[in-house]
Structure formats: C-alpha cells, structure tokens
Amino acid sequence: MKIQALKDKFEEIYGEPSESVFFSPGRVNLIGEHIDYNGGMVLPVAINLGTYAVLRKRDDQKVNVISLNFESLGVMSFELDKIKYDADLDWVNYPMGVLYILQQEGFKTPFGFDMLFFGDLPNGAGLSSSASIEVLMATIANEYYGLGLEGVAIAKLCQKSENQFNGVNCGIMDQFSIAMGKKDHAVLLNCDTLEYENVPATLGDYRIVIVNTNKKRGLVDSEYNLRRTECDTAFTKLQSAFDLRKITSLCDLTPTEFLSVSEVLTSDSVYKRAYHAIVENHRTIKSKEALNAGNLVVFGEWMYSSHESLSNYFEVSCKELDLVVKLSRGLRGVLGARMTGAGFGGCAIALVHKDHCASYQKTIADKYKAETGLEAAFYIAQISGGTARVE
Predict the structure, then answer these.
(1) Where does the source fall among the domains of life (predicted)?
(2) Catalytic residue among 86, 88, 174, 232
(3) pTM exceeds 0.70, yes or no
C-alpha cells in the first residue's frame, strides 16, 4: 500500500491530515535460531516488509489507534495515565506496552496520538510483526517526546515490554535487529553481552525467498516457554559440572566442551535442547565467516544443517516446514533453506538464484499443496535499514 494512500485513509478516519509517517521492518534470522536466550550469536537481517504508522499528536492523554490489517476492529483507544493490559484490545497491547514501560522507566509521556497502522508482514508467520510494532512505537515516542534513546536502549525497552507487559518470555534478537538493522548487512549479535557487528550480506545474484507455510502456529507460546525452561535446566547442570572456567550462558560452551560434560544431562529432551543451542552457536560463527568470504555455498549448507537441528534436536519444526526444506534441497539454483522464527509453522527461508526464483516458487507451491492441501505464499525480501521516520 502506498504511503499517500495510508495518509489519505488517516485523514478519512480522523478528519484531519497526518503529521508524519514511520516504517519499522520485520526481520528474518539467517541463522542462529532459539539461542538468543541462551547467550548465543544470532545473524538476523531487517527486511523491506514491515509496519507503517501514520500519526499526529494530540493535546490530551488519549491514544487512538486503528490497524488496516484488522480494520473490522475499528478505532480503539486508551488513556496514557490508565494503561493496563487488556485482552479485548488485542494487538494494541504491543504499542500500549511500550508506552507503559517508558512510564515505568521514569520517562514522561505528556500527550497522546491519533495513529493508523498498516503492516505488509504476514500475520503470525514468524517474521516478528509484534517486535516491529514495538520498535515502531518506541521510535515514535523517542522522537516526539525527545527521550534521547539510542537504538540499543530502544531494543532493550521493547524486549522488556514483550516480557513484562505481554507475557512472552522472548530474547532480544527481534527487537535488536529491527532497531539496529543496516541496509545490505546482517547483524551479528552476541545475545549475552549485546556486542554486535554489521556483517556485509553481499548476496550477489541470490535472493532471500520467504516461504509462508500458512500453517497456524498454535503451540508456539507454551512450547517456547517450555524450551526456555529446558535450556535453563541444562545450563544449571552444565555450569556445575564444567570446572575448567566459569561459563555465563549455555552458548559459552564450545561443542567439544559440551561433549566432555554432557553426561550430567540425564533427560533426553534437556540434552537435545542444549546440543542444538551450543552447536547452532558454532554454526552461526562459521556462517559469518562464510559471508565475509563471499562463500554462499558453504553458508547455504549451514542453513540446511540448522534446520535439521531445529527439527530433530530442538523439535520446533513441523511437517510443513520440513517439507519446504526437503523440496528446496533438490531444486536447481537453491543454495540453502531452513525454518526461521519460533517454529511450529510460520515461515521458511531459502537462498535462491534470481534466475530461478519464479520456477522455485511454482515448484514449491505445486508440490507443497499436493502434499499438505495448503497454499504457500512467497515474498522476495531485500535487506533494509532499521526503524525510522520515512516522511
């Protein structure tokens, strides 16, 4: 949807012209899945699909919001001085939570807004639409309220909002990559220390193709929290058993070190969660080296290896995601594929040569529908910068 069309819609709904337009990207994690809360290294990119906000400031404490993605819900409202979680407000709890955490941190929120949101990210597909909205709201508040927050602080604040206000025990990767994204670069982030570097993601003739399985992700919240608990259990046991040096997180262990003490993990499921996290961290480091060397073939093989681990060790894949990756591996022009996001449905990504993108999409669509009865959706993503005012 064009920005002018969004501005026209804003004026139609609110009766006055808007003041500004902001855009917040979604994110695709190239590799390093389910290790952001284990102190590991992740390698996400911000993409050119995301969330727009068209707005104007108000003179009172009222915030009016409408999303064109949920237009039937109409304009919903809340008061800045009376914020509390409200399930009836649905998606509005994401921007509302950010403003609540700002208040808890001692920042002033002296006036409200009229706001119109529109996202071209597929809902519930694992491309971080919630984090996109959170960082969008924080960036708007930062500019309009003159808070002086840097990108890292915004990411931490938005993570706290999702954890404490919306009750999802997520790591910081999504918010960080959306706030700190850089065009044509991946963000290599150490989730333990928040040290990061921008890694050139020079893909040449290859494209990131996002494949939305359209499999609903019903188990994700409960299973996500269970995986975190299992990882915490593994770390506690391994920390006690490993005496060569102090380890500060699960991913502080190398794969070789892990094998030397893994017998203390008597639970098969806890062992498998730890195995995935520690080896996935190693894959991410090696993937960064492959990108720096321009070796996309090696990078693609790390993607395949990552998916196999997520499916067999972390057990967060599903038959639909596994099928997309299996089909991808046999197709000309495809270097790698894997699930991305929390799992149990949602999206896979593939690294596909530009001359084969059309045939790739047709082949996957036909074979996927034949085996699952579901229609896959495809998006060719470009690596974009982070959240910012666009007009």
Answers:
(1) Bacteria
(2) 174
(3) yes
